[in-house]
Amino acid sequence: MIQMKAVGLHRYLPIADKESLLDVLLEKPTVQGRDLLVQVKAISVNPVDVKVRAPKDRTEASPRVLGWDAAGVVEAVGPECTLFKPGDEVYYAGSITRPGGNSEFHLVDERIVGHKPKTLDYAEAAALPLTTITAWEGLFDRLGISQRPEHNAGQTILIIGAAGGVGSIATQIAKGVGLTVIGTASRPESVAWVKEHGADYTINHYEPFLPQLKELGFAGVDYIFCLNQMQQHWKQMLDIIVPQGKICSIVETDEQLDLMPLKNKSATFVWEFMFTRAMYETPDMIEQHRLLDAVAAKVDAGELRTTLTERLTPINAANLRKAHELVESGRTIGKIVLEHF
């Protein structure tokens, strides 16, 4: 049996506990079907990692490996693969229903994998997949925004949580298709980051939205992409969405939402969950491969850039615990990436 390094967990514990994430040795997996075996070079940490790892009364008999952002090199391909070959450099988010990528080698279905941008190193590329898929699907598949800038002239979008991982790439993509982008940010450093990534305006999410929008000259917005604190902002979103406007959220809520105020406006509310296609193996699952390749082309053309803000080396339990702690703080800007086993 060939072994590989990985970071996993047996118990779901507070991140301050050294047993919340452990260095482990696991059997190196083998390919079948449409799977790629990827030698992982870099990984990134997202809020989903923190949510899955959060304390709960449950144990795992064998180590559970988290991690849904990776970049690396294809070592082997399954017999049904047609999109990649050994030696290809790739980046991807993976599937929430399978082991994550916090391991030296990782199996992933080729239909949700993209060719790594040639102009980025592995760490810069690993910062992008989950947030990019979320942003792309949210903007184009869920909100139905056109990818042709001439169709979006005069249209406005409010991105709530614009300095975070998804917000940082969503701002760039939205600006690139001609939308007027308003991002929420509260600290001087996050305001600067949001503007640097293409926002035309910023407002403070700790203050009422409508007066701030009116001060900027807007009576409402055509689209809202909610990436943070939906319960806190829901009533304000109902107030500022224009008639026939659209709201998309990626944020879970434990409260029932009142959709009735959307009726008279004929306004739309829709969810975005980037794992849906892989989780249900939908007929259009390959769209994630296509969108990651499209984003790589835009990165290499200088139209989009990585959202990496911090690198940690090497990939081990201690550094992953540090990254989880930073993400849990809710104050991170951009993405935290770990590289090198």
What order do the helices and strands come in, and which of them pair?
Layout: E1 3-12, E2 22-27, E3 35-45, H1 47-53, E4 56-65, E5 70-77, E6 89-92, E7 105-109, E8 113-115, H2 122-126, H3 129-142, E9 156-160, H4 165-176, E10 180-184, H5 188-196, E11 201-203, H6 209-216, E12 221-226, H7 230-240, E13 241-249, E14 268-271, H8 276-280, H9 287-300, E15 308-312, H10 317-328, E16 335-339
Parallel strand pairs: 9-10, 9-12, 10-11, 12-13, 13-14, 15-16
Antiparallel strand pairs: 1-2, 1-4, 3-5, 3-7, 3-16, 5-6, 6-8
CATH fold naming of the largest domain: Quinone Oxidoreductase, Chain A, domain 1
* Structural domain tally: 2
**Uncertain ranges:** none
- Backbone structural class: alpha/beta
The CATH homologous superfamily name of the largest domain equals Medium-chain alcohol dehydrogenases, catalytic domain
Q: Report the principal-axis shape.
A: globular
**Distance between the first and last residues' Cα:** 20 Å
How much helical structure, as a percent, in the residues? 25-40%
Order of helices and strands: EEEHEEEEEHHEHEHEHEHEEHHEHE
Report the CATH architecture of the largest domain: Alpha-Beta Complex
CATH class of the largest domain: Alpha Beta
Number of helices: 10
How many DSSP E strands? 16
Largest sheet: 7 strands, mixed
Q: What's the overall average pLDDT, rounded?
A: 96
- Taken as a percent bin, the fraction of beta residues is 25-35%
Radius of gyration over all CA atoms, rounded: 20 Å
